[in-house]
Design goal:
Number of helices: 9
Shape: flat
Radius of gyration: 20 Å
Strand content: under 5%
Largest sheet: none
Number of strands: 0
Helix content: over 70%
Length: about 280
């Protein structure tokens, strides 16, 4: 079967599951944990997606890693992290947030493979470790952003419930898919745990990038736009974690800082590669 059909199949499976979870969780407002067969159903496109990424990254002699591949790897990791996380926390209702992005990301490496292969040094273990850490950091931050979005939706519904007519049970102000979610404070704790893990991965990414740059270019950091955005993103998340620890930042303040740091991180590689490959048509 041609690769493009495999990409389409994985994307269609993600999209079908996103529609299923939207109908059964959000539209039908049916709370509850994922069933075993539903979890297995998500594993099917995840496994196919992972196989396609493995073939694209590990098998060819010439490595191409454009913005399409970066986004595809990010969302593959993101779905995997969500599945693991959902074992320990009842996060039913996040599927319609995660799966559509995965469906869009799957075919991107086929549509935008990158205009030029990355040179021979990319085959080194150090470079692959650096790329793996970077994509892991991107992925955990992606799940953190979706957590923050979910928290924002829950918070708005709580405010509406408290402002509306008191016809609901005050001990259970949320209905439908929201009713099965952990309390808002628990979601917030999970969010900052994710940000802490992602921040550690981003720190390792910058450290390995510095080592790799020194061995290749003779200087620990090349101050181009990618490095600048990555460092500013690191400083943003460091400020957020410090503000959380010492000033108790939470709610919309935490959401704004999380979103700002994530946008800067996207601009560091994905955004710059998009401009180079699609807008400027350069490798």
């Amino acid at each position: 079967m041609p690769d493009i059909l495999l990409y389409v199949a994985a994307s269609a499976l993600y999209a079908a599951l996103a529609f299923y979870f939207w109908r059964t969780r959000w539209a039908a407002a049916a709370p509850g944990r994922m069933r075993a067969w539903e979890r297995a159903a998500i594993l099917a496109p995840l496994a196919l997606h992972g196989w396609l990424l493995f073939r694209a990254l590990m098998l060819p002699s010439e490595l191409r890693f454009g913005f399409g591949m970066a986004l595809s790897v990010m969302l593959w990791f993101g779905v995997l992290i969500y599945l693991v996380e959902s074992i320990f926390f009842n996060l039913d209702g996040m599927q319609p947030l995660v799966l559509p992005f995965a469906a869009l990301a799957v075919p991107l490496p086929a549509l935008f493979p990158g205009l030029a292969g990355i040179s021979a040094y990319a085959a080194s273990l150090g470079f692959r470790l650096h790329v793996f850490l970077a994509m892991a950091a991107y992925s955990v931050f992606t799940i953190a952003i979706l957590h923050a979005l979910l928290m924002s939706l829950v918070e708005r519904r709580l405010h509406r419930a408290h402002r509306g007519p008191q016809t609901h049970d005050p001990t259970q102000p949320l209905a439908g898919p929201w009713a099965s979610l952990p309390p808002l404070l628990t979601l917030e704790r999970i969010l900052f745990q994710l940000i802490g893990i992602a921040f550690a991965l981003l720190t390792l990414t910058l450290a390995t990038g510095s080592i790799f740059s020194e061995s290749l270019f003779g200087q620990p950091l090349r101050f181009d736009h990618k490095t600048l955005f990555a460092i500013v993103s690191w400083l943003t998340f460091a400020a957020l974690l410090a503000g959380r620890r010492w000033y108790g930042w939470r709610g919309r303040t935490a959401l704004r800082w999380t979103l700002a740091g994530f946008v800067l991180l996207l601009l560091a590689y994905v955004g710059s590669r998009f401009v180079i490959e699609v807008v400027l048509h350069r490798g």
